[in-house]
Design brief:
Oligomer: single chain
Number of domains: 3
Strand content: 15-25%
Helix content: 25-40%
Strand order of the largest sheet: 4-3-5-12-6
InterPro entries: LysR_HTH_N (IPR000847), LysR_subst-bd (IPR005119), WH-like_DNA-bd_sf (IPR036388), WH_DNA-bd_sf (IPR036390)
CATH topology of the largest domain: D-Maltodextrin-Binding Protein, domain 2
Keywords: DNA-binding, Transcription, Transcription regulation
Organism: Fulvimonas soli
Protein name: DNA-binding transcriptional LysR family regulator
Radius of gyration: 23 Å
Order of helices and strands: HHHEEHEHHEHEEEHEHEHEEEHH
GO molecular function: DNA-binding transcription factor activity; transcription cis-regulatory region binding
Amino acid sequence: MTLTQLRYLVAIADAGLNITLAAERVHATQPGLSKQLKQLEDELGFQLFVRKGKSLDAVTQAGRQVLERARLILAEVGNIRAIAANLRNEAHGELRIATTHTQARFALPAAIAALNARYPQVSVHLLPVQDGEVLAQLEAGRADLAVISTAAGVPPPVGLALPAYRWHRVILMPQDHPLAARRQALQLADLARLPLVSYDSSLKPESSLRRAFELEGLAPQIAMTAGDADLIKTYVRAGLGVGVLAEMAVQAGDDDLVALPADHLLPECTTWVVLRRDVVPREYMLEFVARFAPHLDRRDVTRVLADAAPARWPAAPHWRERPVLPLPDAA
């Protein structure tokens, strides 16, 4: 039994039993991967997968037990390598970040650029997915950290959640919209009469947007949803409805639109950096956290990860109050 065989086994499971896809992910050939799988099964004396013809159909009961242990072994091997790399002050590697489009497009660029300036040999891989899929990427080991937002409390206990910043939503509309020139503050009753364009998560029953309307005895008219804030703005411009989106998604180039504050209408949100507690972080990962959430003491983060100690973090700054990290000159 080898680490390569265990790595191939996990890759097959994570690829939905698609050997071709698994081989691509581990940079192996399909025949080579199949051969290693057969050698592992021959050594163990039982099958790890149920076959249907030449395809894998399911994981056997014994295979599930082996998979669980294989993941633990590979995780500990990764931890040993991380410890060694940190002790050698290695400045190269990769950082995989699972997050949403809004965070990837509007919140992360400055921190990633600062990380690149400090660690130019670290490659960063963004995994933009739907809101409800971010933590699943972290749990499955496909990401080193996650950046996710919540409107109530901390994220599910997948790892160590570090508060990065707080933010509110805005109501976005074309300049010629009747509400754009309104002097009085918007009310939810005003929005309930209008078609809304917002994030995919607003379709969920537990959506904070829906809950806010329900508390007022109202129901939102969701005309369109998207996981991409730029798409929301595009369809607001196209006249499909009034947009409800994160304030950081409104940029200087959006001057053809009017953004009205919704601080008094919708609950405040918090963006979190989530780290796996069972993984030894590389120094560049901690550097990213320091850049993205500079109010957190790096030593406290390291201590809590090492000791699993209870964490009491300082209050996260609001998006409008955060220090602005300059982006490097593209020239």
